[in-house]
Amino acid sequence: MGAGGGSRLGQLFLRSLLFLLLAGPPAPRPASGQLRYAVPEELEHGAFVANLGEDLGLDLSTLSARRFRIVSRAGARQYLEVNLENGILFVNERIDREEVCEAGGTCLLHLQLLVESPLELYRVEVEVLDINDHAPTFPWQEYVLEVAESAVLGARFPLESAHDPDVGTNSVRTYRLSPNGFFSLEVQTRSDTSKFAELVLERTLDREQQRTHRLLLTALDGGVPERSGTAHILITVLDANDNVPVFDQPSYGVSLPEDAPAGTLVIQLNATDLDEGPNGEIEYSFSGHAPLRIRELFHIEPQSGQVLLKGPLDYERTSLHELYVQAKDRGPSAVAVHCRVLVHLLDVNDNAPEVTLTSVSTPVLEDAPPGTVIAVISVLDRDSGDNGRVSCEVSPDVPFELRSSFRNYYTLVTTQALDREVVPEYNISITARDMGSPALLTRSTLTVPVSDVNDNAPRFLQPSYSVYVMENNAPGASICSVSALDPDCQQNGYLSYSIADGHIHGMPVGTYVSINSDSGHMYALRSLDYEQIRSFQIQVQAQDAGFPPLSANVTVHIFVLDQNDNAPVIVSPMPRNGSVATELVPRSARPGYLVGTVSAVDADAGLNSRLSYQLLQATDFTLFSMAPDTGELRTLRSFLEQDATRQRLVVQVRDGGQPALSATMSLLLSVVETMPQTFSDFSEFSLPAEPSSSSPLTLYLLVSLGSISFTFLLAILILTAIRCRGKRCSHGGDGCLPPCCHCCPSSRPSSDGLKTSNLTAQPPAGTTATTCLDVPGGGPPGYCYKVCLGPESAQSDFMFLKPCTPPRNNEKDSGKRSQPGQNLQVSKQIKQPNTDWLTPSTQRPALKSSQSLEDMGEIRKALQKEHERLCTLVTPVSEFQKAPSGTNSIWTPQYSPLYPGHIPPLDYQHNVYIPGTPTLLSSKDGPLFLGRENKNSFSTFGKRKKMTTYCDMHDNVVINNDLK
């Protein structure tokens, strides 16, 4: 920096210091709830103004965190700034008062201070004090003034005013004129307190003596130190023009609206001159000291004296214009006369309100309480009076309102709870309207997005889902899809699906199905079997990712549809020698004679289990016929001499599925002249075509045989009870109930191995059991069977198939079964019938076959395949003993009405057992009802002097042979 620059800075510093000493330190002056300070202009950057932190009572340590700042309109210069560390208001940019405030008077800087958390607004006024930094200057360095020599004493000649940008005492205070003998100087004051000088003729001019006069005009201000400016005045003495123009009045006043267009007549001036000719022709013009601004706004017609509007007026900038007009004639040595025209501007509502958003807090949480501050809004109208009075409002259809905090300052707050799912974003229209006529308004739109809160739980599209899956499905295949909606957004609306913990038939539900956590697609993890599980339900949960997370559950019902995947199984008659069943037929049989009944079962349901019977092959098709629905084999005609004595038949059983499955068996019939006393297996269970009376000899044989069998069985039961009691002691109460079960393991079997349906049977008194055979079970682990035959090898009376594990019945029932002589125990609970098939009581499927001891291998294979769903019931001893002696009882399972008045349908295949329904065993004397606990899935078929039972994997298996 040069020496000149340093000197200027030094002078500025001395002037500022002197001002501060005279004015004292700037102190806050609260006015109407505001703080007011004073600061001299031209201070350097960083100059101290005030300590706002202390004056406002703010915690200095939190100023930065609370974002303490000065709010200003966009584009405005930031002359002052706040130090956030100590709260001091300092000069940010050099302040030139003459630049900031063009007009005179008090120069104020209005500051709005904003602090957040909580939101507070303060208003501060800083008065910029003028310093004497400008010297008065004249528009021209030399003035030329023509004065007629005939000018009278006391004539006044106004001079152009000096201009000093400073105000107050620093502006032009007075004028001085260099000493001379003709003119003196008088200083005049305008209405705005500004000074101007007039030359006053003190002595008559004599052009012949002195043509010109040179004077020095000095303008002085009132600053300290005093500044001055000079201009030269050249006065030319003109020849005499005795009369001067005269205005009607020395001063004029006129009112003009500020929105008057260009060319508007402001005033018509009139001046008169008594002279004639050119000396009486008057020309009008602005005085030499008229400001440039006046010349830009107004125009004077020189000839007519009309004052016209030239430029646009602005009441908000200047409400009064002062025009100085001169008139002079065209004569020689014309003397100009002056008048003043005061133009008062009328305010017009030509300024719309200005809306400024000083602070906006967006987005707003949807759970924000009513009264939450969203924004601070300031409005400004530059008009005056009612034209500048502004009201502000928002549209009534939004949950927001404006609250006035200071004059022309508003806070936008919420009036009620928000819901982002209903309205995610608000476009708030803010309307500022003044009180003018007509009123002007300004609309500003504020967009307020609503931030999401996790306030909505997921919702499934359906209250529950029903899914139908065909059995034997491929593992891993998709079976259905669930879908839920969450109106929340982002992570609050992101859903994940899961399956609730649970068990299906003792297995975790996760081993059956899985679900894609993102898409909701469900997949079967295993191939389903309709015969094992027909339906199950799971709980699917949809949970969002919000905090805390919300969830919803839905029940999915999965129904397994049946496929024809089980072929019919022929259960009666059983082949005797591997693959052929043999039977005897009397040659004297008449047409319609019932040779026997073929019985089969099908584990499928519905049409897939509807069976039909037919003869595929026969030695003579004209001799036998097969009932397609019942499987009854009857003779079509009587036997002839030429008929073969051995008839071979091939029987096929087909189900109703698509495609149909079938099973075949071969039956070898021997035609004999007379039937032996021991009836054949196949014909024993056939109902005679015509009822016949029993002979007394048959009755005696039956009574004797029954007594002997009952006595022998009673002895066996007593020995069994003794052995089982000993085994309970040795095995801790886990021994087998019957003593014939020699295959029982020493360890305790699984509790899941058996269900509660355990049947035991006791033969009539007098029977003896001399043959026992252990049959290992081919089913689930832990099962073995004991086959006990009667004293006649293949003609044995009873056969027991019993698991080694004791049933899971209560102890009382277990104890009763171990008592000798106890009758057959059955469940008293009647299960609901399977609605797929019902049968009238007149249709009785007879299950008959020949069976010998060497057929047990086939029995074991059948048990292994059908042990889950087939079971045969036997007649209790008490009911068996009621049968009349001498009768050849034929036992067949049949369906009975489930309750009094129930009428079963007529389309029942009476040789097929439908799981889940009660069963009747029919004899010659009538049906015998047997119930079954738990699953009620069994099937029976007849044998000669024996009946075989197939049990499911959880039930005991009993094979029972009736007496002769």
Automatic annotation (TrEMBL):
Keyword Transmembrane in annotation: yes
Database matches in SMART domains: CA
UniProt keyword Cell division, yes or no: no
Biased composition (Low complexity): 760-771
Keywords linked to the UniProt accession: Calcium, Cell adhesion, Cell membrane, Glycoprotein, Membrane, Repeat, Signal, Transmembrane, Transmembrane helix
Residue ranges occupied by any Cadherin domain in the UniProt entry: 31-138, 139-247, 248-355, 356-460, 461-570, 585-693
Role summary: Potential calcium-dependent cell-adhesion protein. May be involved in the establishment and maintenance of specific neuronal connections in the brain.
Protein name stated in the entry: Protocadherin gamma-C3
Species, as recorded: Melopsittacus undulatus (Budgerigar)
